[in-house]
UniProtKB/TrEMBL annotation:
InterPro entries: HARBI1_dom, Transposase_HTH_dom. This is Transposase, IS4 family. Residues 24-73 form the Transposase Helix-turn-helix domain. Its cofactor is a divalent metal cation. Residues 91-235 form the DDE Tnp4 domain. Keywords: Metal-binding. GO terms for molecular function: metal ion binding.
């Protein structure tokens, strides 16, 4: 927390206030409030009560510091070009849910039966998070989403390992059951081995979603969701840099 506050205060110093009513929260308190919001996805009314301020102060703090977090920690977010192409990666997609904005098409995921945005996530064989894509509409199929990221162009050999939803993209995936037939025992054992090796990426996604804003439903205006996702991804990689 101290290291993060130092970075944010250095990159976004608060100008001296010469007139008007003093702000309800210090810079450090605003940053802490914003972090609590993203970690717990608490309502603004609850945060206002916890920090003994009105709800408008909570809203201003979150609106002020969320994009600043994304900007200040941008260098901690790996791009495809930063990844080691000689290492085998585990890839999976996940939905980060939001409210059902009826005027926005493309948010509903038939796979997850709710609205949100699609993220592609990669980790190494030990489960260490190494990359997260930019968000795509929730209706986007994982295979289409991963093609648009450029990840597959960067990893021709060894190819990433993924589930059946990525079949046909040159990745290591389980065997599909043939139409009207059954898998052989060898194919079943192969699928079991693949699924066992893939388990760490599911844990990596679960760890990312301990930032509850990505797990329990985003309530702020939809146009702020991508920058919130970027801020949380940056926070996760910043946190992992101390591990």
């Amino acid at each position: 927390m101290a290291a993060l506050c130092t970075i944010l205060i250095e990159t976004h110093p608060r100008p001296p206030q010469r007139t008007g009513r003093p702000r309800a929260l210090t810079t450090e308190q605003e940053i802490r409030l914003t972090l609590v919001y993203h970690r717990r996805n608490r309502t603004q009314a609850e945060l206002a009560e916890s920090f003994d301020v009105d709800q408008s102060s909570v809203s201003r703090a979150i609106c002020r510091w969320t994009p600043r977090l994304a900007e200040a920690l941008e260098d901690f977010i790996p791009t495809v070009d930063d990844l080691d192409s000689s290492r085998t990666l585990l890839v999976d997609g996940t939905l980060v849910p939001c409210w059902n904005w009826r005027d926005q098409s493309g948010l509903y995921s038939g796979k997850h039966h709710r609205t949100g945005l699609n993220l592609q996530v990669a980790c190494d064989l030990d489960g260490r998070l190494v990359w997260v894509s930019d968000p795509a509409p929730g209706s986007t199929h994982d295979a289409k989403a991963i093609r648009h990221t450029g990840l597959l162009d960067h990893f021709p050999d060894p190819p990433p390992m993924a589930d059946k939803g990525y079949t046909g993209l040159g990745m290591i995936t389980p065997e599909r059951k043939p139409a009207g037939g059954e898998l052989t025992e060898t194919q079943k054992q192969y699928n079991k081995a693949i699924n066992t090796l893939r388990a760490p990426v599911e844990r990596a996604i679960a760890n990312l979603k301990t930032w509850r804003t990505l797990h329990t439903g985003y309530r702020r205006p939809l146009h702020t969701f991508p920058e919130t996702i970027t801020a949380i991804i940056a926070l996760e990689f910043f946190k992992n840099s101390f591990a």
